[in-house]
What does this fold into?
Amino acid sequence: MICPHCATTLTQRERANRTCHYCRKTFALDPKRNSLKLHDVRMKALATRLSGNTYAYTTTQLWYAAARKQNRSDAAKKFGIKEGFWFSLFSLVCGGVCTGAGAARENEVLLFFGGIGLLFALVIGYVTLDDVLRKKVRMAVSLAEFNRDVLEPWRMVYQAYPPHMVWETQVPAPPVPAEPVLAVLSPDGSVLACLAANEVPARFNVALAPRIDQLPAHAPAVAVLHDASAAGYLLAAKARAELAPRPVMDISPRPRSLISARGAVRLRDSAPGAKVMKQLAGTLTPPELEWLAKGWWSPVAALRPSDLIARVFGASERASSADPERRAAAAVGFLTWPGAR
It folds into this structure.
């Protein structure tokens, strides 16, 4: 790893007790001592990438960004489903042939190798089937572990948390604008905290709410930010049904943008079930529905602050242009929209 203070490349022996052998300064993270393989230089790069030296981001957003590569390596297979099937079949055939030949000739060596082949076939077949039917992909570490093993050591060394980071529980709820052009509905507290910390409600004249029944009745339009999951799309459908005829915009990422996107956080849980998928029929494309039906999902909190803000800004502009009175005001210069900072 590279010393964050003097930029010297350090071997493990040269960084004992998280202290640089050359400049004698202490650092917070040793990649050999945390499961995310983080070090201080990488953490600083992650913080810069999330904030752009401008935006506030939450602990949850930093957690997803830090674990992104580790989750991919945990989810990666050493061989694919097809390879696993053929290797299992090959082991089964070889094991069967050796066992049969060994039994016929009473050869213990052939019987031994035949047993090994059959054992390989059984193990590989089980692993492959388990991967197909029950494989779950979770975060490499929990958020609590991330706070304990990464953020607390960082605070102890640098006497502060990474630049521009905010704790979502400490971000005060913003007041509802008197005449909001839009209400943003998101069940994810980290998303709402990020928008509030970046002063989105005041800058774009929008209200924030975690539940449908908490949306302000005087907001003329609603935008939904949810996980790319079966539950998330059910929430969007429920919002449209309950809030009609108020327009409801789904500004969340679509599965098609996440299925093969480099760097996307893709997690896998239990399959949502046929009843749930039936409710989603017609709302997404067949490949997207198939992806969700297998239990795959992606958290909306993994989006960068700039992406979240851009989505809300775009929705607020669409809501404003759809309102005849606001459109008339904008035409004569009484209403302008701030650009994303």
